[in-house]
Structures are given as C-alpha cells and as structure tokens.
Amino acid sequence: xxxxxxxxLSVGGVRYVTRASTLQQxxxxxxxxxxxxxxxxxxLVNGEFFVDRDGALFSYIMDFLRTLQVSLPTDFSxxxxxxxxxxxxxxxxxxxxxxxxxxxKPRLEILEVRFSLQEMQAFFRIFGSxxxxxxxxxxxxxxxxxxxxxxxxxxPFPSQKTLVPLPLERPSHHDMVFQCGTEFxxxxxxxxxxxxxxxxxxxxxxxxxxxxxxxxxxLKDGFRLISARTVASExxxxxxxxxxxxxxxxxxx
Length: 253
Hints:
Blueprint: E1 6-11, E2 14-19, H1 20-23, H2 30-34, E3 43-45, E4 48-51, H3 58-67, E5 69-70, H4 79-88, H5 92-98, H6 101-104, E6 107-118, E7 121-128, H7 131-140, E8 141-149, E9 164-166, E10 169-172, E11 175-186, E12 189-197, H8 207-220, E13 224-232, E14 237-246, E15 251-252
Parallel strand pairs: 1-4
Antiparallel strand pairs: 1-2, 3-4, 5-15, 6-7, 6-14, 7-11, 8-9, 8-12, 10-11, 11-12, 13-14
Helix pairs in contact: 4-5
Keywords: Ion channel, Ion transport, Transport
Pfam families: BTB_2
GO cellular component, one term: endoplasmic reticulum
C-alpha cells in the first residue's frame, strides 16, 4: 500500500479518514501492521478497517500520530483508559508519555490584585503564581506621567501636554507595582499619572476605572474572581484573588 493512500477506519462505529503514512509513523505498531493485513483484530469490511475499540478516545490517538505530541483538553480525565488504548495499538511511546500524567494535567494558576485608594492616588500591586503571566501582563500595562493644572486633575482624559511613560516597579518576577492619580507638585500644578492597559488605548487616571479595566482584562484572559477581602482596613487595602486552569504544553516524543 502506498504511504500516500487514503485509509478509512471505523473505530467503535466512529469513522476516521487518514493517510497510510500517518498510520505508519511507528512501524512496529498494530496500526502499521494492519495496513499489511498482518493483524486479525482489524477486519476489512467494504473497504474500511473495522476495530471494536473506543471510538472517541481514538481521536487522541490520531492527533498523536499526526503531531507526535500529547495535547489534551483541560477537562480530560481518562488518562488510564487512553493509556490502555495506546498499549492496545502498540503505540508504546504514547503510553509512556501518558504515564507522566502529572505533567499532562492542567495546573491551577493564582493571581492576586491589591488595590488601595489614598486621597487622589490609587496604588496597585499584582502577585502571580506564574511568572510568565505576570511578565505578559506587565507588557500590557503602561503608566504615563506629566504635569497638570489643579483645575483639570480629575479629568478622565489627559491634557495635550507630553506624557512620559514610566517603567513599572518589578520587586520580583512574580509581582509588579504601579499607581495612578495625582500628587501635589507646586503652585496649582500636580503630577498626574495615567494607566493604559492594552489592547485598550485609553489613558485612565481614576483608580476605580483602572481597577475595572484590569478586571475586564483578566476575565478575558480566562481568569475568574474567587474572592474579595479587605486586608488592611486602616490603609483601605482591598485584595482580589483570581484563578484559572492553565493548560500544560504538549509533551513531544
């Protein structure tokens, strides 16, 4: 059989169409031997190979043969059954990868936002259990600063004066610190700090508005709010905790 020839399989009543070359990725497997009619478990019926196995789990077998990776849904739980199917088909590299179940299961990721309002300023500190997530979020957040007159400090839109971007404080790889609002400078002048969070282009000076935009950004990224509490009532520090299931990278043969 040519390795480019189309092969049709009926696995537990579920029909799959693929190339012979895909099934021959592992020459010692039963799927490769099937093409040479060397395995009686596979019956050729009306031009289709029939095997009485789990048709739904076979989709992961096919994905592995096509990509040489194990990449499973976050809600997947049938690791033992899938490993048993891999062993049946003689795909021992796949069975070995599935034995590393702890590497394939989704990981719980925690993010904590601390927010404090003090007079005309708002302070933010974000902690994350995953440093890459915190790094990505830090690249989305920009703080701009500039001088502003007393009459316009509360305006939601920045003045036409040049605003200078400020680097975020990064105490560690797992957290970041920034602030917005205004503080007294001299005369009727104030130092104003605006916050922008990509992909939103607005520059916000009001702390509550920034907090709302930050929440919106995290929820769109797959996080969910699990708790809100006051951690320092005297300093008016509120703490918001988020979590999400982070899908692991696929294991490769």
